[in-house]
Amino acid sequence: MTTDLEGHLDRYAALLVRVGVNLQPGQRLLVSTDVTCAPLARLVTRHAYDAGAPLVNVVFTDAPSTRVRLAHAAPESLDHFPEWRAALWRETAERGDAFLHVTSEDPALLDGIDPARVDRERLARQQALRPFSELLRRNAFAWCRAAAPSTAWAARVFPHLRADEAVARLWSDVLEACRADVSDPVAAWRAHLAELEGRADELGARRYGALHFRGPGTDLTVGLADTHVWVGGAARTPGGVRIVPNLPAEEVFTAPHRARVEGVVRATRPLSLSGVLVEGIELRFEAGRIVEARATRGEEVLLRALDSDDGARYLGEVALVPVTSAVARTGTLFLDSVYDENAACHLAFGASYRENFAGGEALSDEEVASLGGNDSVTHVDFMIGGEHVDVDGVREGGARDPLMRGGVWAF
Ligand code: ZN
Ligand code: ZN
Fold first, then answer.
1. pLDDT per residue over 218-271, tens digit each?
2. pLDDT, tens digit (0-9, with 9 covering 90-100), for 200-215
3. DSSP string covering 203-219, please?
4. Ligand with an atom nearest the CA of residue 321
5. What was the pLDDT predicted at 138?
6. For the chain, which domains are there?
């Protein structure tokens, strides 16, 4: 690791603490990451104590051990999830501590493992963490999900490079995508978030009834939820603290209406799902429901995700991202959904976010559902934007505004 990269790494750690979870004095921090990220976790810990944290708790996982379990454990044992972990996650959310998840996962970690086993473990985990996830979707506490390159991840992204070159290249792309490769990333993010929030405010003021996506294999009308709110980049906790839940963040997004999506859509980028690469996704919607789903690779994993529960076959998010975003500019396919979704317009099937409804945090589940919101244990983003995809905003009366042309903003 060069001294230069060490300096960048330190600025990245500061970014996660100061912008990502925006840690406040007196606030605890829980860091969840893989053992390969220990050097970054130490820098994060130092910045967190500098910011006034009374306690930083780092919980490590080990990706190869996860694979061993999924490959060898008795099938019924995959229903088990450690109680202490579910309790710690829940307590963190309920206390209003900050939560930082730094992933470094090999996108093909679970390749070759029976998808039914992968699915069984995922459902047990999602069920055990459901109280935490519900508070997370309401931004009831400060949270941030970020990534740090591992040798295994870098080798998948740059298979033609030597291991050390691949890691260095992926770090360089990660720092560029996260706008951390500048002398003052915190100031750069202030300006970037202002731009995203400006676009979100303008889209919100126009009160579109629907968006229309048009491109190769795509002719899709996405009705928007009643009282939908556009959000760009940052979110706010109940205490009014501005956090950036996903790094990088290049999107402005809102909630589709669960029952008002019609047409066909073709994904424009591969998707890494449950450790399996899914390519060539094509979906057909009727009255909001995904009634046909195909993929040229990984189709079984896609279908299993769609069958997680009833809500998994309905959309929970629609997001606009220009092809000129900081992530897209790297030209790299990261094989990580947060990175790749921030390179292109995308949809997500599964749960919608409370922040995408006016006064959403205070609404009951029934109220959100009546506005067109969607509930599910899952939320999977897949990319549908690109330089050949145009997007229109459709006003209630039917008038159309160009929102994106050739993959870039048209307003
Ligand atoms: Zn998104
Ligand atoms: Zn999403």
1. 999 999 999 999 999 899 999 999 999 999 999 999 999 999 999 999 999 988
2. 999 999 999 999 999 9
3. HHHTT-SEEEEEETTEE
4. 1
5. 86
6. 3-177 (3.40.1830.10), 185-409 (no CATH)
Listed residue (225, 218, 213, 197) closest to 351, CA to CA: 225
Cα of 135 to ligand 1 centre, how many Å?
18
- Asked, as a colleague might, if the bond just before 248 is cis with ω within 30 of 0, I would say yes
Nearest ligand to residue 251 Cα: 1
Q: Output the CA 175–ligand 1 centroid distance in Å.
A: 20
For residue 317, the CA-to-ligand 2 centroid distance in Å is 6
CA 393 to ligand 1 centroid distance, Å: 18
Q: What is the DSSP string of 292-333?
A: EEE-SBSHHHHHHHHTSSGGGGSEEEEEE--TTSHHHHTT--
Ligand number nearest CA of 340 is 1
**What is the pLDDT of the chain when averaged over all its residues?**
94
